[in-house]
Structures are given as structure tokens and as C-alpha cells.
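Many introductory courses stop at the sequence. We go one step further.
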Amino acid sequence: MKKILFVLSLLVFVSGYGRLFASGAISHGGDIVYTKPVKSVIFSHKLHAEDRGLSCGMCHSGLFDAVALKAQQKNDFNMDSLYKGKYCGSCHNGQMAFASNTQCARCHAGVKGHAVHEKKGPVKSPASGPEGLLILGKGDSFVKFSHAKHAASLICGDCHSGVFPMSRDKTKVTMEGIYQGESCGSCHNGKNAFSSYECKKCHEKTPAPAVDLTYKNKGTGAVKFSHEFHKSAFKCDECHKNLFAMRKGGSRMKMDAMYNGRFCGSCHNGNTASNVTDCGKCHKG
């Protein structure tokens, strides 16, 4: 039996919440007609996602890139790989679905089948994410994320599945990571989109501790730091992340370093703010 390149991949979805198909909150991606290397495979998103109830994350989290037809550009995208459980063969193994080395005509419609499909026209349905806003985070500093707003200028593959997996809650999003270009920070860097330092463009309230932070020191009085007071005079990016890590306890501060202009000493130099040598201003008791 001649080895036939099995051209089959899945179109893009903005979100991997397949369980929402039944409610109509997310639509399937329509049909895809593959023409390489021959006009042979017609793939139906409706059949797999809507009728069979498969979630997007089952395919778009390692098996296939979230860009239509990209899989067929790979050298190993062939029947041998499918027989070994890769790509479509991950499910078409004779257990979850019919084996990839049987019932060939169910996928390979051939040139005649392709012609009939072209005449009738493919079933089209725009891929879409969850309706409404997604609430990310907890407390007053939560973020409202709109798939519709982002999809207006981006294609699904820009985010899925390289930046974000096609499954909800699979990515741990932290401000530290965002500042380093991870997750949202891959675009929100001040070039592709507004900088992630512009906190209020995403957060309902500035994500800063509501109460003073207390730093205990051996041999000296404790220091209380007020975000509320400092953010009234400074922007978040004036301190984070160059001076301080964006997490409690992430910066090991020492007075010698402050005297050399690091940490608090960057501003507390006698010009911008009181000098770090004015010990009583910060150390109480």
C-alpha cells in the first residue's frame, strides 16, 4: 500500500472551551478542504466539535498548531506518523475513533468528492470565543478580557496555542511574567500594543496591596511601606520591575545597596525624596 500524505488539521478557535458548543456560545469553524498533495480530504469542524462534542483543547494543545493547514507543511505529517499515534492518529487509533489505517474513504474523498464539495460550497461558520467578558484574577484588581475586541485585529493563531493553550486555566498569568514578555506581555510591550505598565487599561483598580507592607529588621525598627501613598506620586513602572520584583519578598534589600542608589535609594537620595540616611523617617520604634 502506497503511503499517502494524510492532510488533516483543525482550523483556528479563539478559545478552547468546547463544552460551550452545545449552548451556542461558541461556533464551530466550518469545513476545511485540503488540496495538498492531492484534492482528497474534507475536514468538518461541525462533525468533530459540534456533533461529537470534542473540545478545542483536545487538538489545539500539542497535536496541531492553531493555524489552518500549517500541519501539512511538516515533513512528518504522513500516514506513518498517524499510525504511530501522532496528529489525527492520536484519536483515530481504533479505540476512540476508527483507526487511521482503515476506512480510508471516510477521509479521502478523492478528486470527485472534492469537486462535489466545491460545487455545493463549504459549510462556513466563523470561529469565535466565549460571548461576553472573561474575568481574570480575584479581588478588586481583576481584569476583564474581551475575545471579540482582540479578534478584531488578531487571528487566533497569534495567541493560541503558542502563548496560551486552547484550554481555560492552563496558563499561570503573573505580572512578573508579563513584564518579561510572557502571556499578555508578548503583545503588550509598548510596541505591538500598549505597555503592560499601563495598569488601569486592564485592571479595574491598580493591583497594589490595600494595606501597608511591613518589613521587619533585626536590630532596627520595622519599616512600613504604603503603596497608596507612593502611587499617588509615582507610576507603577517607575519602581516595577527594574527596582523591585513584582511580588512580595522578591527583592532582597540591604542598606548598603540603598546607599548606592538601588531599591528605595533610587528616589530617596535627598533630591527626589528624603535621604535614606534619615533613618527615623522609615524605621519606627
